[in-house]
Amino acid sequence: MPFPAPSQKQAKVLWFSLTALALAVFLALLGLMFWGIGWLIDRLSPVLLPLAVAAIVAYLLNPLVNYFESKYSDTSVLFKQFPNAARLKAILSVLMLAVMLVTLVFVPLGATVVDEVKIFARELPAKSRDLGRTLNSLYLKMESFRQGLSLNGTKDSGAESPDAQERDNPSTLAPRGSEAVDREGIEKFISGHGQNIGGWVMTQARSLPVKVVGWFGLLVGLALVPLYVFYFLLEARGIEDKWTNYLPLMESKFKEEAVFVLKSFNDCLIVFFRCQILVAVCVGTLLAIGFWIINMPHGILLGLIAGLIGIIPYFGVIITTVPVVGLSMMYAQQIHWVGDSSNPALWAPMLALSVCVLVLLLEKTMIQPKIVGDRVGMHPVAVIIAVLMGTALVGGILGGLLAIPIVMAARTFLFRYVWAKRASDGSIITEEDAVPEDSHGEAEAPA
Question: Structural domain of residue 82, as residue ranges?
């Protein structure tokens, strides 16, 4: 007996159900693919991280190499046996200049940072105790202020109760010292969680050889970064001219579109890293100068940390605020303009945070508009969300670094294939207008 044909309503419901199922399967496969890519990148990070560092350095040095190459000739006797003597001489000249710059600038800076780290490590125990007493004093003042507010409306002017006197007595609010440690409680904790602690120790012991091998591979890879940079610069012209020949695609319209997407991603990488590194250097320098003005110790170290983390947009200043607050409270007596006040532990963090806020405002109003401009073309909230998603999906600094260029490339892809961007006169912006600015500054992405 044949099945009756479904009605039009049943057919619509069936089609909707199949579409929803297909969409769910597609999203699940997409999430699985991203998880697999993140897992693979995490396992290959000892290899990929040095390559990424070398690629960034090559991106930064390639314009200078091209400039020197145009000034040199291929008639040198020493390099005449090489096929591209002018470029080889230009690479060696740029690398020598880079080594001289590192020697003249970063070696004294590194020595200063090492000295500051040694001083901080020597002063840390005493300063930690001072910080504990400062926090306890602030807590007592806040508690006294709260109790004063709660007792402000009472009419009872008699003697306070013993409980109130005990609460107001600072000695009763102060935390107990190390001599009052509950040994019995510690023994109970160890006996109750001993098996878990032993299992955790065994797990860490089993994974220790793998971690040691991974760190050794990472150190070897970082040692090979100069070699990677040299070959990236040497083969830059060949890679730029012939990389499309190695795509595993037949000559077709699809290959042309794939080349466009990959070129857009490359242009986004160039724009982002060249501009953002300059921004990070400026932000780190300004923070170090600001901390030096207010006489906060270890300001150079904080500026260096902010410069290194500042390669990821917005995170240099934001993450630096955490140690800034702690150090400003530890060295509150030494901070200018607030060290002699009645409550330096309260005003010193506010002054130090005001330096961070001022530098952040300068970054957003002057530094980034002058250096980056509209090349990134992303809202600040979108940048922060992209960085957080990159660190969550890929993991570590590498995910945060690659998040912005990937989103910029995806934005270009959407402008070309999905969105119909219209100008003020109503005309549709062409696909070429959606291409971000390349390394030569010929085009610019729409904001």
Answer: 45-131+208-246
